[in-house]
UniProtKB/TrEMBL annotation:
This is AI-2E family transporter. It is found in: Cell membrane. The lineage of its organism: Bacteria, Pseudomonadati, Bacteroidota, Chitinophagia, Chitinophagales. Pfam families: AI-2E_transport. The keyword RNA-binding does not apply. One of its GO terms (biological process) is transmembrane transport. The chain crosses the membrane at residues 9-28, 34-53, 60-82, 145-168, 202-224, 230-253, 265-286, 298-321.
C-alpha cells in the first residue's frame, strides 16, 4: 500500500513557517493581545468565586461585578502601600545622589592608586558617560511617557475585558465546543477544564509565594535596618514572578535604592536577605507551591521568558509561564502535538528500549526514502 504521509522536511518546514507566522502575529498585535491575555488569566482565576456566588442565588452579572470590585480593592490597597514608600524614597533622592557621587569619587581614588591611571583620564571618562546620559535623557523621558500611557491603557482595558469575559464565559465555552466536531467535543471539554484547573491553581500558588516572599523579605530588611523595607519587600515579591531573571533585577534595584544609606553594612545586609529569601523560595516555596501546579522545565521557561520579553517587553516576561502552561495542556490533550508537550515537560528519564528501537526504525525508513 502506498504511503501518502508527507516527507519529514515538509512537515518541519510547515511547522517552522507556522511558528514564524504565529510569533509575527503576536508581535504585531501585542497592544491588543497583552490586555486580552491578562484578562483571560484573571477571568480563569475568578471563575470559581463567581460560580460560588451564582450557586448562592446571586445574578451572574452581579457576581461578576462583586468579584471585580474585590479584586480592584485588593490591587488598590497594594498600590497604595507601594506608592507611599515611593513618595518617601523620592524625598531621599538628594541623599542618594550625594552618596552615589561619594562612591564615584572613592572609585576614582581607588582606580588611581591601584591601577596607576591618571585622575584626568578617569574624570574625562566619567564626564563622557555623564554627557552621553544627558544626551539620551530626552529619548528616555519620551519612552517613559509612552510606557506610562501604555500602562494606563492596560489598567483601563484589563478590568473591562475581565468583567466581560466573566459575564460571557458560558458563551465563550459554547463557542469553543461548537467549533469542533462532536467526536472531538469531549477532548475539547477536557482541555478547557484542565486549563482552568492549571491556571487557577498556578495563580493561587503564585499569590501564596508572593505573600511569603514579601513577609520574609520585610522581616529581613527590618533586621538589617533598611529604611525602605516595605518597598523592597514588594519589589522582590513582584519581580520574583519573572523566573530566574527577576531575582537578579531585584538585587540590582535594591542596591541602588539602599544606596541612599551611607552605611555599607545595610547594603550588604540587603543582598544577604535577598540571597536567603531566594534560597528559601527556590528550594521550598517554588517546588512545593508553584512547581506542583505547572510542570515546565527550566530551559523552556528561560527561553519562553526571553522570547516573551522580545515580543511583548515586561508584560511578556510575566505572561510567559502561564502561556506555556496553557500550551502544555493543549499539547498533552492533542495526540498529534504530544511530542511538543514532552519537550515542555520535566520528565528527564531516558527513553525506554522499545522507544529507542522505534526511533531507529523511523530513522532507517527516512534514510531509505531519501536514498530512493
Amino acid at each position: 500500500m502506498e504511503n501518502n504521509s508527507k516527507p519529514y522536511y515538509l512537515k518541519l518546514s510547515s511547522t517552522l513557517i507556522t511558528i514564524t507566522l504565529l510569533l509575527l502575529l503576536l508581535y504585531i498585535g501585542r497592544n491588543v493581545l497583552i490586555p486580552l491575555f491578562f484578562a483571560s488569566i484573571f477571568c480563569i482565576f475568578l471563575i470559581k468565586p463567581c460560580n460560588y456566588l451564582e450557586r448562592k442565588g446571586v445574578h451572574h452579572a452581579i457576581a461578576a461585578i462583586i468579584c471585580m470590585l474585590l479584586s480592584i480593592i485588593v490591587m488598590g490597597t497594594i498600590i497604595y502601600f507601594i506608592s507611599t514608600q515611593i513618595v518617601a524614597f523620592k524625598n531621599d533622592l538628594p541623599t542618594l545622589s550625594n552618596n552615589l557621587n561619594k562612591a564615584s569619587d572613592n572609585l576614582q581614588t581607588y582606580v588611581q592608586q591601584h591601577f596607576h591611571i591618571s585622575y584626568s583620564k578617569i574624570h574625562n571618562s566619567l564626564q563622557n558617560l555623564r554627557e552621553k546620559a544627558l544626551a539620551s535623557a530626552p529619548s528616555i523621558v519620551g519612552s517613559t511617557f509612552a510606557t506610562l500611557s501604555g500602562i494606563i491603557e492596560y489598567l483601563v482595558l484589563i478590568p473591562i475585558y475581565t468583567f466581560l469575559m466573566l459575564l460571557y464565559r458560558n458563551l465563550i465555552v459554547r463557542f469553543l465546543l461548537a467549533s469542533f466536531s462532536e467526536t472531538h467535543s469531549e477532548a475539547v471539554a477536557a482541555i478547557l477544564g484542565k486549563t482552568k484547573f492549571v491556571i487557577r491553581n498556578y495563580i493561587f500558588g503564585l499569590l501564596i509565594e508572593m505573600l511569603t516572599v514579601a513577609v520574609l523579605s520585610f522581616i529581613g530588611y527590618m533586621i538589617v535596618g533598611s529604611e525602605y523595607a516595605i518597598l523592597l519587600a514588594f519589589l522582590i515579591a513582584i519581580l520574583n514572578l519573572i523566573p530566574y531573571l527577576g531575582v537578579l533585577t531585584a538585587a540590582i534595584i535594591s542596591v541602588i535604592i539602599t544606596a541612599s544609606s551611607s552605611n555599607p553594612v545595610v547594603i550588604i545586609g540587603v543582598l544577604i536577605v535577598i540571597a536567603i529569601v531566594h534560597l528559601v523560595d527556590s528550594n521550598i516555596l517554588l517546588p512545593k507551591i508553584v512547581g506542583s501546579k505547572v510542570k515546565i522545565n527550566a530551559f523552556v521557561t528561560i527561553v519562553g521568558v526571553v522570547v516573551g520579553s522580545e515580543l511583548w517587553g515586561i508584560p511578556g516576561m510575566f505572561l510567559a509561564v502561564p502561556m506555556m502552561a496553557i500550551l502544555k495542556v493543549l499539547f498533552d490533550g492533542v495526540e498529534e502535538l504530544k511530542p511538543w508537550g514532552i519537550l515542555l515537560g520535566e520528565d528527564l528519564e531516558r527513553p525506554t528500549k522499545q522507544e529507542r528501537k522505534i526511533l531507529r526504525i523511523k530513522i532507517k525508513k527516512t534514510n531509505e526514502k531519501n536514498n530512493d
